[in-house]
Amino acid sequence: MTAQDRPRQPRIRHNDYGVLRPPEPGSWTPRMSVSVVIAAYGHQDKLDLTLAGLAAQTYPSHLMEVVVVDDGTVPALRLPEIVPENTRLVTTEPGARGRASARNTGLALADGDVVHWLDADMVAFHDEVEAHMRWHHLAGYLVVMGYVRFVDHEPGTHTPAQVRDAVAAHATETLFDEAASEPHAWIVDLAARTDGLRTERDLAYRVHVTNAASVNAGLLRAAGPLDTGLVLGEDSELGYRLAQAGAAFVLAPEARTRHLGASMMMRDGEQVRRYNDAFVPDHIPVMRWRRTHPRRQWLVPYVEVVIDVSSAPYEDVRATVDGFLASSLGDLRITLVAPWGSVREERRDPLASPHLDLLLVRGLYRAEPRVRLAEHVPGSAAPVPYRLLCPAGWVPGPETVLRLVEEAAEHGCGLVSVALDETDEVIAARLEHTGAFARAALVVAPGEPLDSAVDDVAGTRWADGATLGFLPAAEAEPPKRRKAEDPALRREVARLKAENARLAEELAARAEEPEKGPAPHGRGPAPRGPRALLRRLR
């Protein structure tokens, strides 16, 4: 869909969704459809209660479907007597099991304009679906997270009919001991610190928790399905990719559910965190507190550097690429853009090749894992959060990339343009925030420059290249190998520094003492004033 064909979208700056004004429940006419996707494994009794609660929703039944995915339960799950009007049950294939695969199975079958993830052990309040959907009618790039409380649950305490009747009577809270219930504490704390998530920026994605979140279906399919390679943390990883696709994240405390029993995090939080620490940071570059190693590489880098080398001299390309490879921020990848498919090596007379410079570039970096070749500038850097477009022949200093990204993050900028040189036209590099550009592409008006929309949704600014450490290739020093430190030499230097400090203190103390002349006939103690001490130091 082009900008001309798309309905006009409101412009949410960063994550300040306060510009949206949802209607009061029951006071509006819905038009969008929703698919509630439930991944289930075992616990038929809890699934029955979940479906009973959904059968009493205020959202129009003709606009709501429920897809239950049995993730290989033995004996197989079944649909109970009390279910929403449009409910179906499917089963995952034996070779595609796990929570991510089950939800992806439901996603592939979902027909709704919005996909509402719900766990199979949740009881939704009467207007829970409506509370989600009233937000989605306002903008097409939202992720909405409901308000979950965890309640004690004993099997057999309630029948599906009792749950349906209580939900229909707007009395869901009477089913449970509300005083003993617990909230999603970390979400409540995050909401308190960020004005309901409105002041959060890069970390808002964390509230995409698939026990009670909803996502615009088009946005979800653009970001891609859940990563089946992740056993835990897959919802956070998808939330991160949704952010890179332009999502804004809304907390909807009025979208209430009750979770039957404690969550895995509540039961085994330390072990869950330990597990996730090993698998999730590879996929989410903005988890900087988990990426503290100064040398190692990650599956998804923090910055992608894109350099058009199609007509640049080999020496200029080498200077630029080597400068980036030597950056203190090593969590980056470099993409070299040129018509590589047409580059052919002359086996008999290699120096006569019309593509000699490109051949040399390809040969130099063929084994460098952080450098890749591309025919065209990729349409997006996603899931990489930052893309730096730099002309060949300009060399960053060791701290340039880090300083540039920190400046963008400090100001929340979607674009930082870096002035490198000015002749007839300005030569510039560009640091683009992937999520901001994706958001801008969703809201840009016909004929409007994309950078203008980026300025609206995130802000733009200019920076001076020389101040950041950029130099022309002719003036830049090539990176040099660091000399390995000799531990014995380091200890000796430390010893000498300590001795020097001790002598300096002694000198200062002696300077406070009065000078004493020599004893008659040259006898007596040696002079002890500062001059004598200086002679010792020499």
From TrEMBL:
Source superkingdom: Bacteria
Q: Which UniProt keywords apply?
A: Transferase
Region named Disordered: 1-25, 504-538
Compositional bias annotation for Basic and acidic residues: 1-16, 504-518
- Is Endoplasmic reticulum given among the entry's keywords? no
**Classification via PANTHER family:** GLYCOSYLTRANSFERASE, SLR2126 PROTEIN
Record organism: Sphaerisporangium krabiense
| Secreted keyword on record | no
Stretches with biased composition (Low complexity) = 519-532
Q: Which Pfam families does this entry report, sorted A to Z? A: Glycos_transf_2 (PF00535)
- Recorded GO MF terms: transferase activity
Domain Glycosyltransferase 2-like, chain residue ranges per copy:
35-161
Q: Which InterPro entries does the record cross-reference, listed alphabetically?
A: Glyco_trans_2-like, Glycosyltransf_2, Nucleotide-diphossugar_trans
Q: What is this protein called?
A: Glycosyltransferase involved in cell wall biosynthesis
